[in-house]
Structures are given as structure tokens and as C-alpha cells.
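Write out the 3D structure for:
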Amino acid sequence: QVQLVESGGGSVQAGGSLSLSCAASEYTSNFRCMGWFRQAPENQRERVAVIDRNGKITYADSVKGRFTISKDNAKSTLYLQMNSLKPEDTAMYYCAADRTLFNCAVGPGGYVYWGQGIQVTVSS
């Protein structure tokens, strides 16, 4: 059973930074796709940033230039560095992974494995 455990969330003022980590129970290279999704209250879950096995990255337009996704295969960990945070970034953030996707930039329904989520709150 794959386990994904997020850490690093919290509260920050607008303009600040937070870093999220997602520790996987197996090598991240085992997954074709890994990524970060978020869901704000009363909103649908949306894709934030995804990275494929070869390192190809796709960002949501709303976070381009502010967020950076990366992974460390040796540590089996996925990261999300979030800078210049805005109140609209407030959401529950989820780590996700999949072994079989060919296109990582799909909606959340395409991903099989999920973390429990971690809250990020940005105050104005």
C-alpha cells in the first residue's frame, strides 16, 4: 500500500513563503507522475504543479513564477516551494502520485495515490 505523507504547511502572511514536503513509502522513481493539488472550501480540487518521471514539470497558471516543484528520488520525497503567497492560495494541499499516467497534467481524478492533505493559510 502506497503511503504519501505531507508536511510543512501552516499559516503565513501574504508575500511570505512556505515549503511543503511529501514523503513516499517507496521510490518516487516508481511513479510516472507526482504532483501537488489543492482544494479550498466550496471549490473543486485543482492541480497546482506536477512532475513526471523524467522531470518534466507543469504548473497551473495561477502559481507560475511563484511555486517550484521538485523531487529527490534518493529521499523518496516530493517538494513544493511556495513564494510570494497570496490569500487565494489558502487551501488544503494534497500530494498525489500515479504509476500509469502518460500525461501528468490531468485532473485529480487521474491520480490513484493521495496523501491526507495539509492546510496552508495565507492572511492578508
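The longest strand covers residues 91-98.
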